[in-house]
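Before relying on records like the one below, remember that each one covers exactly one chain. Contacts with other chains, cofactors or solvent are not represented anywhere in the record.
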Amino acid sequence: MNLHTKLQHRAAQNKPIRIGLIGAGKFGSMYLAQVPRTPGVHLAGIADLSPDAARANLARVGWARERTMASSLDDAVKQGSTFVSDDWRALVSHPAIDVIVECTGNPIAAVEHCLAAFDHGKHVVNVTVEADAFCGPLLARKAAEKNVVYSMAFGDQPALICDLVDWARTCGFPVVAAGRGHKWLPHFAQSTPDTVWGYYGLTPEQAARGGLNPKMFNSFLDGSKPSIESTAVSNATALAVPSNGLLYPPASVEDIPFVTRPKSEGGVLEKKGMVEVISSLEADGRKIPYDIRMGVWVTVEAETDYIKNCFEEYNAHTDPSGRYFTLYKRWHLIGLEVGVSVASVALRGEPTGVATAWDADVVATAKRDLRPGETLDGEGGYTVWGKLLPANKSAAMGGLPLGLAHDVKLVRAVAQGQSLTWDDVVIDTTTHAYRIRREMELLFAK
C-alpha cells in the first residue's frame, strides 16, 4: 500500500486533497481527529445542521479555534483553514472540493447529498451505510455516469469485509463466507431505546456520561445494523445472503472456520459463498471467550491438497478437514480509518467497497403488533427492525426498505415478526431517496 507516499507527495506539491464533510457527529468527529495528522489533505468545509455543535466537536478532538475562523468557503480554500456552516449545497457545489464525506447517518438526506455531489463532479465517501443498503447499486451507477467515484467508508465494517474478500480473491482463494461479529440473542430483535443499555452492557449513567444515542446504539443491538452492513457487503461482493435472515451462529475466533462451512459439511451455511454474522454470545447468554464481536472475517477454501498442506505447514488454524481457513481483524476503528477511503478515491480513483448489483435488501419488520395509524420510527426505534433478505425475495413481496421506514404512517395492521410492504404505509413519494429506490427496483430486480 502506497497511499501515504502519495499523500506526502501531494503535501510536498502543496496540492492537497480538498474535502467537504457533511455531518460532524461521532463518526465525523473521529475522522476530524485524524485530519491534522494526515499529510496531503485539507478539510476545507464542514456542513452540519448545528454549526455550533460542529465547532464544539472540533474543539473536543483538539482543533485550534483559529483553524475554523474562515469567514467563507472561498477564504478557507485560500487560507488552508476550515469553514463551518449549515449550507451543504454550497459545500458540494464549490469547485475546489474534491471529495465529499457524507456522514449524517440520515439515509434520506444522504441520498440527496450524494446525488448533488455527483452532479457537481465530486467523489463521495458514504459513511451512511443505511442509504447504501437500499439504493447503493444505483448510487454507484449514477456516480460512474458522472465520472466520479462512490465508495463505502473504510473503518466501517462493510468496507473492511470487502477488503478481506478482495484479498482472498486476489490471492486465488474461493470465498466460502465473510462477515462481521455481533453481540446477539434472538430477543434483541424486540429491543427498544428503553431497553438497549441493559442488553448492551452499559448503565444508563454510563450512557449519559458518554452522550451516547440510545436509538443509534439500539440499531446495532436489534440486528438492524448487522443486516444493513451485510446487505452492503453482499451487493458489493456478490456473496449470497441467507434465505430468511441472518443466523448469528455463536463462535469464538478459533471456531469461525468450523461454523462457516456448508451444512453438508457440518457448518451453518446454505451453500458456499455467503455473508453471515458471528455472535459473541452462546444461545444461553454466556459470553464467548476470544470473540469477534467488534471485528470482521473471511473464510476461504483450499481447493487442492497442495494448498491444504500449505495451511498445515504454516500452522494456519483451520476446520478439522484442513480445508477451511479464516483470516480476521478483531477490531475496527470506525471514523479513525476513513482517511483510507478519502485517499483511495482521490488518488487512485478506486472505491473501498462499492455496490455492483442488487443481491440483498433490508426489509422493515415489526417489533410488536402494529396498528393502523401508527408512525414508524426507523432503525433502532420502537416499531421496526431490519431483516436481511435476498433482493429477489424482497422485490417479490414488495418489501419496505428499512432506510425508508422513517416517519411514515401505517394504513393497516402488521403482526409482530411480519415484514412490511409498500402497501402497508403511506410514504412521501417526492423525495430523492424514494424515487431512486423505485428506479433501482426497476433497473436491478432479477
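The longest strand covers residues 175-182.
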